[in-house]
Amino acid sequence: MAKILVATDKPFAAIAVKGIREVVESAGDELVLLEKYGEKAKLLDAVKDVDAIIIRSDIIDAEVLDAAKQLKIVVRAGAGYDNVDLATATAHNVCVMNTPGQNSNAVAELAFGMMVMAVRNFYNGTSGTELKGKKLGIHAYGNVGRNVARIAKGFGMEIYAFDAFCPASAIEADGVKPVASQEELYATCDVVSLHIPATAETKNSIDYELVGKMPKGGLLVNTARKEVINEAGLIKLMEERADLKYVTDIMPAANEEFAAKFAGRYFSTPKKMGAQTAEANINAGIAAAKQIEGFLKEGCEKFRVNK
Ligand code: 3PG
């Protein structure tokens, strides 16, 4: 009997945990739950004897992997796996997977929630603008970007996308206009929605020069990662350009400075909310549980990210 730990500092909805438990127990395995653990020491203790771990944005670093002597697989219930030390996992012969696409509609919907809030002046009673007819730039056309495009059509937006890894023909096939560079995307669009992962190449890449290309009244929406933003550069730019707005689902390190300096054109959720829906939790959590059982019972490595 394998022992499977759900280690979520930001817990799944209870209904998702129930679904995960059903998958695990009907496969004859044991589920252990560690939620809202706060201190890393609790995580280190919980991983000691488990075969598999389901996580969200929880940090799985070398210390955790060293402590998890029985560990065979970690599944990040979600898309981004920048919170897992892949090299150390590979060195420990631990398989790492994500669950791509399972929470992407939830993130896309939140991007629009924040967009509407920003263009309506954060509901302060003054006249704002509409999204209809505005140019939307989707920065990275993956699962979330595609959902953003689908929803943007309903709003009547003119949709552009840039993705260094997605062929222009695939973007065009969705009725979205591909652009040749990220610079062109920012220079073209009234609203840019970020959907890039945090990698060595993308960290700090959304900077003074790039966002500075946006037209007057530009709005940057971040439901991706805080690490991709060059915060000092964005602060400098927003100081120089009182027309720009920034809304984010990932609280910047410099949140207090953003909030103090840019009242009325800056907003951050207190805790990352993009994937916080029952549906996304159910989809990603149950997919993670099934992927673990498929790996443990049949050796299935689909969705492995540390190949
Ligand atoms: C993801 O990468 O899937 C999203 O950022 C959601 O992250 P979360 O599970 O920590 O909410």
TrEMBL record:
Pfam families: 2-Hacid_dh, 2-Hacid_dh_C. The keyword Oxidoreductase applies. Transmembrane segments: none annotated. Keywords: Oxidoreductase. Residues 123-252 form the D-isomer specific 2-hydroxyacid dehydrogenase NAD-binding domain. The keyword Transport does not apply. It comes from the Bacteria. Residues 30-306 form the D-isomer specific 2-hydroxyacid dehydrogenase catalytic domain. Belongs to the D-isomer specific 2-hydroxyacid dehydrogenase family. This is 3-phosphoglycerate dehydrogenase.
